[in-house]
Amino acid sequence: MENVNSFEERFQQKIDNEEKIEARDWMPEAYRKTLIRQISQHAHSEIVGMLPEGNFITRAPSLKRKLALLAKVQDEAGHGLYLYSATETLGISRDELIDQLHSGKAKYSSIFNYPTLTWSDIGAIGWLVDGAAIMNQVALCRTSYGPYARAMVRICKEESFHQRQGYDILLTMCNGTAEQKEMVQDSVNRWWWPSLMMFGPSDSDSPHSAQSLKWKVKRLSNDELRQRFVDMTVPQAEILGITLPDPLLKYNESRGHYDFGEIDWEEFRQVVSGNGPCNKERLQARVKAHEEGNWVREAASAYAEKMKSKSLASVA
Amino acid sequence: MENQLRDYILMMADNVMILGQRLGEWCGHGPVLEQDIAITNIALDLIGEARNYYQYLGETEGKKEDEYPMKRDVRAFKNILLTEVPNGHWGDTIMRQCMFDCYHYYLLEGMTTSKNERLAAIAKKSIKEATYHLAFSGEWVIRLGDGTEESHQKMQQSLDDLMPYFNEMFIPESYEIWCHEQNIAPSSEVVRSSANEKFNAILTQATLQMPEKYYSKKGGKSGLHTENLGFILADMQYLQRSYPGVDW
Ligand SMILES: [Fe+2]
Ligand SMILES: [Fe+2]
User: Fold this and answer.
1) pLDDT tens digit string along B126-164?
2) How far apart are CA A279 and CA A269, in angstroms?
3) A302/B24 touch (CB, cutoff 8 Å), yes or no
4) I need a labelling partner for B78 at 20 to 30 A (CA). Which of A199, A283, B29, B103 fits?
5) Which CATH number does the domain B3-242 belong to among 3.90.76.10, 3.90.550.10, 1.10.3720.10, 1.20.1260.10?
6) How does pLDDT run across A106-123, given as a tens digit for each residue?
7) A63 closest CB neighbour out of B34, B35, B65
8) Other C-beta atoms within 10 Å of A99: how many?
């Protein structure tokens, strides 16, 4: 018993000293589980997140935008890869993780259950959704688990590029015709609240938060991150010349932050629990791609086996 | 610019544009994450190459690059029919890609010494990418052809289904013959023999059989397309058509 305690103490000591926990280090089982849940959820979000934007690749309005969107969605696939690898260091395979996604056991960010309807949605996603993701991820660059923190550093660089790209789409459109500007306003109206929901339930309602903060798996609370995001975004909306769809949004001199209205938590709960506009479609698309790829993966490993035994035979 | 040269550049551009557009449909739906990324890379390269040709035309004709892919209708496109065939399953896409890469690689190789300096420069840049594409698609044809019983059968079927589109690549239109005579483009016969040799070598390694009989289709190079192209363009051009004359 004493031993376990001293392991735990040393572990917490390391975290308190801002040292990274590495895969080979001792860690409490609950820490490992929390990380697997959080990192894989993050990985799944990158992958499912490819779908709403991928949707517009064939319809992008110019070759320049088409290439940028292709590259962006491809980056997200890369993020998924880094994060699956980071999760694998905790002793779980990518196949198991993907099964958890497909069976509905694992979650992904509920923002990707909203539909992309018009081209400016692509801009709004880059600006707001990647923007919100950055808030989270910049904080996570200092997370206590080494492989996760390092994956985040790589990812953050690309995310801020995505955000600028999205903003550029909107800015170009806002400088265009009235019709284009209207399209932008409509997109922002639809994506604003779901983006605020990306930070999760408010602190008073967030069951895992306290422990995660103590372990430095999380570095800032949901509400702190959400506030930062709002503070960053409002001035950018002003430059675009659009209105954010919240009548209560107002700068609070005494707090030094923007106040904003209450999130529709019922909508949040519905989307998280599977009743969002596209939950079914998103999961179906992932399952379909995976199942249709079965024969390809089988053939690739059969071929690799053949080559291995051939080269063994030639060595013998 | 002579009409023949213009047609030739459009053919080069439309081939990679339409195939890149097709490959873009895979993004997010690939059989493995790594392959999703790889196929998207090829799409990026091909559309990037298309831009180079469209920009060249645009500069000589005082138009924006997007005018060419976004404002022409089906009959004005000069891409070969192979590039507009639907993606099918991963094996179909890989087989289509391998056929195209065999052609594209040797075509670009011949174009690196083009008398037209602009085309030579584009070819020199693009052949580096095409080398990688051919290695990728060739390896996958072999892996799937010589993988499992199921994958072998699937790949044989893909080959049988796609062979009707193979020869069109090497049957020169009058503008290609003209460009060859002007030392702008390589001879279709030279491209054919190198591409055939390479493709057959891949098929042998993949344990696949060339179908004994097949009917060769053609028409794309002169604007006679399959019904597929209209739908591709409907998708690709929808914003430019719905909101004419605005910037994006
Ligand atoms: Fe990402
Ligand atoms: Fe991103």
Assistant:
1) 999 999 999 999 999 999 999 999 999 999 999 999 999
2) 13
3) no
4) B29
5) 1.20.1260.10
6) 999 999 999 999 999 999
7) B65
8) 13
